[in-house]
Design a protein that fits this description.
Layout (H helix, E strand, L loop, with lengths): L11 E2 L2 E2 H4 L9 E3 L2 E5 L3 H13 L5 E2 L18 E4 H4 L1 H22 L12 E5 L6 E4 L5 E6 L4 E3 L2 E3 L4 E2 L7 E6 L6 E3 L2 E4 L1 E7 L18
Length: 222
């Protein structure tokens, strides 16, 4: 069993050797479908370890984003996912992820979406879908790019769909990630969970930031 005392070094955290968990083909095997970048990210073994860690910290998951008029942060159909931040588990785990992303993912994005650069990342989060019927309505993310990594496959339903791109993640192997521009062109949604528990690692890059005084000032609609 994973114990908090297992946090020993940057290399071995909570029983996790992050560097050993990086897929050997990360950034080498790359597929592109309508500006969705698909590449291996973690080994299957490391995905299993992350799921095990998630189960150990099951009580630490909390709703991160709510939809509609729900402001209570109660787990319901209006709070579509439960999240566990890497930064809450360990700042070192976040640091390892950021190094991984910068080394293997940034070069792909900056080549494909030239002249875009990636200024930084928010903490990655493990998202858990465990309630039957749990789904996410069509939306965009508050990030320049979103990365998702499939951590398990022993569930039914809960497929991530991109209607404009006519693509879903159903056939993406465990441990592979898919990255897309998040704000306008790639709205996405997840179908209802039918059976089991789905775990996915998600990371948002920093969105474009504007000052109210930039470009002659701003005007907001809502």
């Amino acid at each position: 069993m994973i114990k908090p005392g297992d946090l020993l070094t940057k290399k071995t955290m909570y029983g996790l050797d992050y560097q050993a968990g990086i897929h050997p083909d990360c950034g080498k095997k790359v597929k592109v479908h309508k500006d969705i970048i698909i590449t291996p990210f973690y080994t299957a073994k490391f995905c299993d370890q992350l799921v095990k860690m998630s189960k150990f910290y099951n009580s630490k998951f909390s709703p991160y984003i709510t939809y509609g008029k729900d402001k209570t942060h109660e787990k319901s159909s209006e709070s579509p996912w439960d999240t566990l931040m890497f930064s809450r588990i360990s700042p070192l785990l976040f640091e390892e992820f950021a190094d991984h992303y910068n080394k293997y993912i940034c070069p792909i994005l900056e080549k494909h979406f030239k002249p875009t650069t990636i200024p930084g990342l928010f903490s990655p989060m493990i998202i858990k879908y465990s309630r039957k019927g749990q789904q996410v309505r069509l939306h965009n993310d508050t990030s320049e790019f979103t990365l998702n990594t499939k951590l398990n496959t022993n569930y039914e339903g809960s497929d991530l769909e991109f209607p404009r791109q006519n693509w879903n993640n159903k056939d993406v192997p465990k441990g592979w990630c898919y990255i897309w521009p998040s704000t306008v062109t790639h709205p996405h949604q997840s179908t209802p969970l039918i059976k089991g528990t789905r775990y996915v690692l998600t990371c948002w890059s920093h969105p474009v930031s504007w000052s109210p005084t930039d470009c002659g000032g701003t005007h907001t609609f809502y």
